[in-house]
Design a protein that fits this description.
DNA polymerase, domain 1; alpha+beta; single chain; 2 domains; Ubiquitin-like (UB roll); 5 strands; about 15% strand; three-stranded antiparallel beta sheet
């Protein structure tokens, strides 16, 4: 049994220590924001913040989580969304929505660390987030809008 803090709430989890954080988030805590994409930490669909840093939750065992976890469910609320969430809606930047969790979490970390990123910095930050929808320009515009 392990204890982790997710979205400000402490949880005792039953998973074995080598269980990927993603499985704990989805299966035990029933948080559906982080998605299983590749299972290899290469696509970004499972990105969450651990201690404020974006990490691929499919690649980190729950036993290695030593700081609070924030998922997209804890980033904003329907009543008060994170500025990036609002900007993505305004730019109609998501199509299927599968990758957008990872993009939001990666973009939010970028904006926290660099409140006024250039387009090149945005593209570099999102380089590891795979998306098949073809809304890349809208996603970049949304991050720029959130920065403004």
């Amino acid at each position: 049994m392990a204890a982790i803090t997710v979205n400000g709430k402490r949880h005792e989890v039953q998973a074995s220590p080598d269980t990927p954080l993603l499985y704990v988030l989805r299966n035990e805590l029933e948080l559906n924001g982080p998605k299983f994409g590749c299972g290899l930490g290469q696509c970004g669909a499972c990105t969450v913040h651990v201690g404020g840093r974006p990490v691929r939750s499919c690649s980190i065992p729950v036993s290695a989580v030593d700081a609070p976890v924030t998922t997209i469910e804890g980033l904003g609320t329907p009543e008060k969304p994170h500025p990036l969430q609002s900007a993505l809606v305004a730019e109609q930047a998501a199509q299927c929505g599968y990758c957008i969790n990872g993009i939001v979490m990666t973009g939010a970390a970028l904006l926290r660390d660099n409140p006024r990123p250039s387009e090149a910095q945005i593209r570099a930050a999102l380089d590891g987030n795979l998306c098949r929808c073809g809304t890349h320009m809208r996603i970049v515009r949304a991050i720029r809008r959130a920065a403004a």
